[in-house]
Specification:
Hex-like_dom2; 18 strands; TIM Barrel; elongated; 5-stranded mixed beta sheet; EC 3.2.1.52; 13 helices; beta-N-acetylhexosaminidase; 4-stranded parallel beta sheet; beta-N-acetylhexosaminidase activity; alpha/beta
Length: about 450
């Protein structure tokens, strides 16, 4: 199954590379979907629902039924309308061109009933997104010969229900007739909820640049399988593709170039476009700017922004695990202002993310921590955050932050999520301190502390 999933992503993603820059979004999605396996081809719902019973009947969905589906969608919430339209756009003509009409061509009420059990609140707005562990994503889906019922109390739950419905559909072409859409295995009774509230994929856009259409295709693919987080590892040792308005020299000097010399960067408009595209599919983008280590690219802009100056000399490996080394030099006022500007801009542009990821891996304490830890905490003020975004209280929405904690002598890819913020941006971690910080997380998840 995992191989099937990987093959699916490769096929779906490759379609995006064939789309010209000026192609409309609708044409882009249709070209991408042409590479998809037919709905129903997988024969199973992925991921496996919590409870799923099925029968032996096959229900045919005509235009009137899908029109009813679109109507129930758009009359209830923005989420249903967008997601319902997305479902229809994946289907072949004439189904993809269904418009919302409450009655059939002759004015008679359609017999096939499509309904939502709950009227959904508008939960997909910017700035209102809860952390994934606090979202209600459970749903119920019932399909019989005469009705389709969706029991979803939130827009995120509805997105999951629509994703399941799409996987149950089967496109069939009868001999000499038009294409029809069926739902085999009826009646279906599904009650589902996520086993893991955070279901994400990390995309490294620093070591490899991916154009916006490619990322949008990836988002659409992930949404179909109920992935709710796309973790964008935006910057790293190799490049800085993120546009920062106050410091244009970052992308001017530190970004990749294409074959004709154009900068391969993400403008603020690009980021907001991706955030909106994901929002309408029930997904959020989690931004990561790797620091305080993995930052030697900054030395290309201003060497004094880093300790060790980004040198490639292996003898300076005490300043960083991965050569060329380099750690944010937050004793430098200019470097400090860069960090503040970047974090403030991330908060503004990634409007649906309740978290900010700071990487935090592989710093070497001797580079800056022993001498500047106290001053750094005073300057950045992570527990009050007034210097970052002008707000008091919690440094990130909802009192949450991503605090990646890793021991200095280990390269293990471990990320701990805490509801409270720790002063951990620049600090020397020794083994005893590391185990101390692990303790509350282990207790929270009922794990042994040994």
């Amino acid at each position: 199954m995992w191989c099937m999933w990987c093959r699916y992503l490769r096929q779906h993603a490759s379609a995006a590379h064939q789309v010209a820059d000026g192609t409309s979004e609708l044409l882009h999605e249709r070209k991408a979907s042409a590479k998809l396996p037919r709905p129903g081809k997988l024969q199973v719902v992925m991921p496996k629902p919590g409870s799923h019973s099925s029968g032996d009947d096959t229900v045919t969905l005509g235009l009137s039924q899908l029109r009813e589906l679109a109507c129930a969608a758009r009359a209830s919430a923005e989420a249903w309308g967008i997601i319902g339209a997305q479902l229809l756009s994946r289907l072949p003509k004439p189904y993809s061109e269904v418009t919302c009409r409450r009655h059939g061509p002759k004015g008679k009420r359609n017999k096939f009933k499509v309904a939502l059990v709950h009227k959904l609140p508008e939960l997909l707005g910017h700035g209102s997104w809860k952390p994934s562990r606090e979202r209600n994503e459970s749903y119920g889906l019932s399909i019989s010969s005469n009705e389709l019922l969706v029991d979803a109390k939130t827009s995120w739950a509805l997105a999951n229900a629509i994703a399941t419905l799409y996987q149950l559909l089967e496109v069939r072409t009868l001999s000499g007739q038009d294409t029809i859409i069926t739902v085999p295995g009826c009646p279906h009774e599904i009650i589902d909820f996520p086993a893991f509230p955070h279901r994400g994929l990390l995309l490294d856009t620093s070591r490899t640049y991916y154009p916006v259409p490619w990322i949008k295709t990836l988002i659409a693919s992930l949404a179909e399988f109920k992935i709710n987080i796309l973790h964008l590892h935006v910057t790293d040792t190799t490049s800085w593709p993120l546009e920062v308005e106050e410091f244009p020299e970052l992308t001017e000097r530190l970004s990749y170039r294409d074959n004709i010399g154009e900068k391969q960067i993400f403008s603020r408009a690009d980021i907001r476009e991706l955030v909106e595209y994901a929002r309408l599919r029930g997904m959020s983008l989690l931004p990561e700017v790797d620091g305080p280590a993995h930052a030697p690219a900054l030395a290309t802009g201003k060497p004094l922004w880093l300790t060790a100056g980004g040198t490639s000399n292996y003898s300076t490996q005490s300043f960083g695990v991965e050569p060329p080394p380099g750690v944010w030099n937050l004793s430098n006022d200019s470097a400090l202002q860069v960090v503040k500007s970047v974090l403030t801009q991330l908060q503004e542009d990634f409007s649906t993310s309740p978290f900010l990821h700071l990487g935090g891996d592989e710093p070497v304490a001797g580079a800056v921590c022993d001498t500047l830890a106290d001053e750094t905490q005073k300057e950045l003020c992570l527990t009050q955050c007034t210097t970052l975004n002008g707000r008091t209280g919690s440094p990130w929405r909802g009192g949450c932050a991503v605090v990646p904690l890793r021991p200095a002598d280990s390269c293990a890819n471990v990320t701990w999520w805490f509801p409270e913020v720790l002063n951990a941006l620049v600090q020397k971690w020794t083994s005893p301190q590391w185990h101390q910080l692990q303790q509350p997380c282990r207790q929270q998840h009922g794990q042994a502390s040994g």
